[in-house]
Amino acid sequence: MKVNGTHYRSLWWNADDAVLEIIDQRSLPYAFITQPVRTMQDFADAIVEMRVRGAPLIGATAAYGMALAMAQDPSDANMDRAWDDLNATRPTAINLRWALNRCRAALQPLPIAQRADAALALAHAIADEDVEINRQIGEHGLQLIRDIAAHKPPGEPVRLLTHCNAGWIATVDWGTATSPMYHAHDAGIPLHIWVDETRPRNQGALTAWELGSHGVPHTYVTDNAGGHLMQHGLVDMVITGTDRTTRSGDVCNKIGTYLKALAAKDNGVPFYVALPSPTIDWTVSDGVAEIPIEERDARETTHIQGTRDDGSLGVVQVTPAGTPGGNPAFDVTPSRLVTGLITERGICEASAEGLAGLFPDMAVAAQ
């Protein structure tokens, strides 16, 4: 996507310096800062500190981390060490482990001397594949938006609600939940996006920054406004992303997604999840019971970052002194609340049969 007229991916390889470049998302939407990732510790810190965030982007970053490890020491022992160190950074998003497993499976059979070049080529391939997967999700999601628009009075926008940031900066490009929005906007379909703030880290501000940069009409609302908007007929469809989806269609996403799905169900609003296939965990069936939920630093709930009236960036405490904070970062939406899953191969129901029907090769391989 474009930032100030220049096309960017969320990460890219700087061939001149032989280093990965990333956008430091901690600074968004206040400042646009890029930085190199030079060491294995830098890779781990970038993921833990959410300089890079979003399940697909974490996976692509991890693949480049494995490439760096192989450039430094292509031994089996170092490959395993890099796998362990990177896998420990974030427990919930499945793309991290998927990318690491793919790298290890491809590299282990190779002679030591070939591993560094092969690892870098594979990291490039994983990044390019993510872009194409998300583009295809956008094409399939576009059809849903077209269908809604066809039943609207002329000129009335299709009103979509999204939660967290499942945009291009959470992927390598296009985004998951935002890809249908960009495709629809570019196709000339009138849109209005309700953007949840997504406490505690306010990733909705990233979505608003993205949409504003692309010219998509939107409004930033509190997390608790979604149900009210649905009750009054102001939401035609909800689209969210996902950090891990089980083989039975349960969806793990940013905390608060479950409540949006409940409100959508109660008000007859379609609730769709944009799902790239690497985010499917074929080893898990019951999302509530089996998916580990990351508990992040309580300071994220007790403090908030923003710009002051004078334009300076600052952090303020929003709770009484001494009040403890809890910070589960994700929740699980059971498949019964999900209208459908928008994947790169098409749209299916949120069920084991639906997913296996679109991805029989992956379902069989996981058995």
Automatic annotation (TrEMBL):
Enzyme Commission designation: 5.3.1.23
Catalytic activity line of the entry: 5-(methylsulfanyl)-alpha-D-ribose 1-phosphate = 5-(methylsulfanyl)-D-ribulose 1-phosphate
Site (Transition state stabilizer): C164
Gene Ontology biological process: L-methionine salvage from methylthioadenosine
GO molecular function, one term: S-methyl-5-thioribose-1-phosphate isomerase activity
UniProt: substrate binding residues: R53, G54, A55, R90, Q203, N253, K254
Location of the active site: D243 (proton donor)
Enzyme class label: isomerase
Recorded metabolic or biological pathway in which this protein acts: Amino-acid biosynthesis; L-methionine biosynthesis via salvage pathway; L-methionine from S-methyl-5-thio-alpha-D-ribose 1-phosphate: step 1/6
Record's keyword terms, sorted: Amino-acid biosynthesis, Isomerase, Methionine biosynthesis
Record bears the keyword Nucleus: no
Protein function: Catalyzes the interconversion of methylthioribose-1-phosphate (MTR-1-P) into methylthioribulose-1-phosphate (MTRu-1-P).
Family as reported in the entry's similarity comment: Belongs to the EIF-2B alpha/beta/delta subunits family. MtnA subfamily.
Protein name, UniProt field: Methylthioribose-1-phosphate isomerase
Protein's organism: Yoonia rhodophyticola
Organism classification: Bacteria, Pseudomonadati, Pseudomonadota, Alphaproteobacteria, Rhodobacterales
